[in-house]
Amino acid sequence: MPVESAVSSRLPSVHIAPSVMCADLCNLESDIRELETAGIDMLHFDLMDAHFVPNMPIGLALIQQLRPKTDCAFDIHLMVENNDFFVDAVAEIGVQQIAVHVESATHLDRTLSLIQAHGIKAGAALNPATPLSALGYVLERLDFVLIMTVNPGFAGQKLVPSTLRKIAECRAFLSEHGADLPIEVDGNVSFENIPKMVSAGADILVGGTSSVFQKSGSRLENVQRAQKAIKLGLAGRESF
Questions:
Q1: If one looks up domain 14-238 in CATH, what number appears?
Q2: What is the structure's pLDDT at 239?
Q3: pLDDT digits over 176-188, tens only?
Q4: Predicted pLDDT at 152
Q5: DSSP3 helix / strand / coil % (the chain, rounded to 5)
Q6: Backbone dihedral region for residue 141 (phi beyond 0: left; psi -120 to 50: alpha; all else: beta)
Q7: Is the distance from CB of 40 to CB of 18 less than 8 angstroms?
Q8: Between these two residues, 239 and 76, which has the higher pLDDT value?
Q9: Is 46 assigned a catalytic role?
């Protein structure tokens, strides 16, 4: 699938975006080939600076080296303090969408505008405890919203219970404000949680250790299992 269709302003179906930080980084190209065979068209990169969150699993060099090796869309999640520096850096590499945290952006409107000036889709990421009202005055700048369902920084965490309700409330909030935007969900996107997340309104699922990279199955088997879970969630969404 072409990169452009993977990041359209309102996705016609639910997409799985494997989290690269959860892959086998010593055999990353092989992992990416398996995911492409499974039908994945978007890869999620968590860029951290060890300041905004206390971790730094991958860096700019990895993204730069991987870019010419795949046609997948690159979905960048910035968990950093100096957002504008990283926006410019990944824009040079060639990415399709970037989410910045409202909690770390001193001038959120300016940073979102910078992303879009590069011809890249701009998203606002919200930590579990951050209210949806933080989006109120930047909706016109947004191409998508990223809801964190765990506290950011580390893979393998348990779901923050209130975040399932937050996904549904985000969908209602966007609808009330006439904003037809995709909702991306990041954190414990497990086989068990996927139907609930999709039913609540999630459009992009960041798959990590509890789904795409779960050790009990191959990449292909895990993606297929996640797709079945998505179908259950879509059936639940239609019942509302």
A1: 3.20.20.70
A2: 54
A3: 999 999 999 999 9
A4: 77
A5: 40, 20, 40
A6: alpha
A7: yes
A8: 76
A9: yes
Is 71 marked active-site?
no
The separation between the first and the last C-alpha atoms of the chain, rounded to the nearest angstrom, is: 30
For the stretch 77-90, pLDDT in tens is: 999 999 999 999 99
What gap in Å lies between CA 179 and CA 118, rounded to an integer? 22
Confirm if 71 and 96 have CB atoms less than 8 A apart: no
- Tell me the chain's radius of gyration from C-alpha atoms: 16
Domains of the chain, residue spans: 14-238
Mean pLDDT, the chain, as a whole number?
92
Active-site annotation holder among 41, 49, 186, 203: 186
User: Looking at 41, 46, 49, 203, which residue is catalytic?
Assistant: 46
Half-sphere exposure (Cβ direction) of 195: Cα atoms closer than 13 Å: 10
